[in-house]
Each structure stands twice: as structure tokens, then as C-alpha cells.
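User: Please check C-alpha cell order:
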Amino acid sequence: MILHISRRGLRCAALATLLLPAVAFLLTWVRPLIAVPCVLAVAAAFFLYVRQSRRIVRGLFGDTADCFALPLAALLAVVLCALLWTFLSGIGGCFYQNEDHYGRNAIFHDLLSHSWPVYFDGTPYALDYYVGFWILPALVGKLFAALMGASMLWPAANAALFVQTVWFLTLIFLLMLSVAEVQTLGKVCLSLVLFVLFSGMDVLMARFNPEAWRHQIEWWAQCYQFSSNTTCLFWVYNQAVPAWLATMLLLSSPEDIGSFALIGLATFPFSPLPLMGLMVYFIGTALCRLAGEIRIKGFARGLSALLGECFTARNLLAVLGLFPVFALYFSANAASSSAPLRFTIYAASLGLGHAVKRLLLFEAIEFACFSLVMGPRFFKSRVFWLTQVSLVLAPMFKIGYNMDFSMRASIPALCTLCVFSIRFLTEKRTGRHSKAAAALLSMLLLIGAVTPLEEFRRGVYKVREAGTIFLTADPFGTVLHPDADTDNFICRDVKDHLFYRYFARSS
């Protein structure tokens, strides 16, 4: 049985999925006088996107019709992959959860046990974090608790979180197949495996750093890190999953400058750092378009044409409806004020020569080898080159004391590189050179697959060791726990910040 799936329908479903948590946040955290106009602006932007999406758009690999065919078995494979991957990640609490779930579960508990916004009684503190991925599951948990008793609060919320993740991943996979033009069952299964196992070749260098094997082999470079897709899902699902969906939205219509702000800001409540990675594509595309317009029309008329494309009603409405509220909300976070974005290649600690060598080695191992193999095929693709720019720049910036910027801002570019890899390996090819390039890329990806397989191995080992699959990492119960990284999750004094003084609902 062959299913005909609408690309337009997928894009609209994806955008609605990203926007709904933002709307829920506005209606439950923000004063009605501000929230209602913002929600109306977001709704209008979405309506305009739906209307605009009726025309046939140019995809990443050329013009595409609205419908693409997919066997029913392939759709079932997509859903099964989403279910299994989510289960093995520990999301929902039915398998081993790594230690990053300590903080994620603490946030979830606070959302469930408090009214919104979350003010902590007896303190000047408030929960202040990118909570977008938990908003809807928390509402489901509260609803079940109201209908069936308090004992249903945590189980229902976790079940909803699991279902939501599966839904996100299903949309991501379908958009990925649509973008890469993958339609046969065998190629669909190959594409799913490639996405789940996509990673840099960390194992080649981790053998020189025994410490990396005790935690994650992605830390082999010490100063730099890119995270595999599986690592992202297992450790930072709340950021990675929405960022993947936004990236697939972008790749499905990479020329649609008039929707860039809408797509980017739909990601903002979930993933501020991955949004910065997406901005490389937004800005790069706009600059390339400007250069083309100037060449044809001259500077003044070219600039005017570009501004007309950028400042569409849907972009402007998204900016008005989402940016002020969420920018002010995140600016109140206690850690944000002490963690400015800065440029660094660790020359001060390593010496300039050694720092440059390590950076070049890191980039070669993590992505450049893949890009060199695919470069001749995608040489004319602007998105391909913007991906390289993003991955070159990401390790050179740092926020605070950790490598969060490099690890998270790189998510969209690594996702895009994965899509190029899928396209490269699934398209028809002739000639020895082309087949040799595909074989070489396959070998490189197989080496990289050790990293996500190590994540799977750790989970299976922990389950076998404990004798149960229910290994929830939930020792805190609240972000105010003494062992929690509290400043990362709170505003320390609500009286000092504009969001809580003028935008947030009162306690």
C-alpha cells in the first residue's frame, strides 16, 4: 500500500507543533493584557504561513511537488524507530536515564507541583529556563491529576512527554525523507539508521584519552565537543528535538526568507543556543540573496527587494508575538548574566600553535572528512557551504565555563550534514568514482557509529546491572535541591527583572 503524503501538510504540522508550547506558555505565564495580543499575532503568523505554503516550493535538492509517495511499511518503520529511540533514551522514565535527567526531572517536578509562573514560596526565586518541551506534558499531567487524583500527576505527565517526543521524531523523520527524496522501504530504513547513528569519528581519538571512555568518548578533545544525534536525544532532548524539527522545516524550503524569523522564533522557547546555529543559515541566505539582487538590480533596488522578502507579515508578527516576551524571560536567568558569549580557541591555556592544531584535528575528525567526500557532489549548494561555516565557527565560541555553545549551536548544522549524507548514500549513482565515494563515506559513518552505540551500550549495561528497566534519574524533586545547579534554572530575584515586574502573572 502506497501513501501519498503532503509536504505542505508536514510543514504546517511541524510549525504548529513548535508553536503550541509557546502559545501555552503565553497563556499561562504572561499577563492576559500582553498574552492575548501575542497569541493573536502568533496565530496570524501561522495562518499566513499556511496560506503561503500552498505554492510549490524549492526544496534542498530542487523543485518538489506537494506530495511524495511512501509505502505503508515505511511509515510503520518511521513510527517504530521513533518509539524505540525514545524508549531507549529514558524519556518517560521507562529505561535508564543518565545524570542529565537529574535537572530535567527536577524542572518537570516544579512545573507539576506549582502554579504557573513557578514562584518558590518563601524565596525571591522563580523557575526561569527554556521549559517549552515540558509545558504541554505538564498540562496533561495536571489534567489527569484533577480528574483521577494526585497519584496520576507524575505517570500521566511522563506518558505525555514520551508521546510528545515520539510525535516530534515522527515529524522529523518524515520531513527528512521528504527533503532527501527517499521513498522506498529499504532506503527509508537506511536513512533512519543513518540519522540515529550519525556522529563524528570520536573513537579514532578517544583511544588516546582513557578519561573519555569513562564518561563520553565525545570529550576526547577536552576543549571542544560536538554531540552525536543519539547523545543529544539521551542528554538534551528538550533542546535537540525541537531544533531538529526546525532544521527540517528550514531544509524543506531553504529559500523562504519570508518565514525565517517565524521558524527561528518558534524554536526560541525550546532551544536558544541551537537557534544561534540556525541564524547562520538565515543570515547567510539573506547575504547571498542580497548579492544576487545587487548584481541584477543595483544596490538600492537590490537592497529594497531583499528587505521586502525579509519583512513579511508572518515574520514581523512572529517577532512581535514571541521575541520580547521570551527574550526578557531568558534574560532573567541567574546564569545568563554571568555567562557572556565570547570568542576563544584556548590559546591562553594551550599555546596558540597547539590550540590551532587541536582545533583543526577536532574539525577534521568531527565533520570535515565527511564534507570532503561529499563536496564534489554538493559543491553548488549554498546550504552545504553554510553548514561548513557553522561547524567551523561553533567551536570557537564559548558561553560560561562549559562547552554548551559548541555542543548545542552545532545541532542544526550537524543535522543538515546528516541529511546531505543520507541524500548522498541513497541517490542513484553510476561510475566507479561515485561508487567509491559512497563506499568511503559509508566507512567513515560506520567508524562514527561507535559513539551512539556506546550510548546504547551504557543503557543496556545499566539495566542488566540493576535487573530492571525502570531506572529514573530523579533524586532532586526540585531545582532548589542543594545538589542541583540551581542558578542554571532560576531567576534569583523577581523584583529586579522586567519580565516578572511587568509581563509575568503575579504569584
User: Anything to note?
Assistant: The mean pLDDT is 92.
